[in-house]
Write a structure and sequence with these properties.
Low-confidence stretches: none
Radius of gyration: 11 Å
Number of domains: 1
Length: 50
């Protein structure tokens, strides 16, 4: 399980979905969040391929 998958599991347990997390990170405008956004978007796309 990757770092992001662990974070996603915690967020889902807290009632925050991946899409909302991406929105929050984009809105924050922090440079360190921009690095994570690409990976989170890739995970989101993979989960929604079905």
């Amino acid at each position: 399980m990757t770092k992001f998958e662990k974070i996603l599991e915690l967020l889902e347990n807290a009632g925050i979905g991946l899409k909302k997390l991406i929105e929050l990170k984009k809105a924050s405008g922090r440079p360190k969040d921009f690095e994570a956004i690409a990976e989170l978007e890739a995970i989101f796309e993979e989960q929604n391929k079905l």
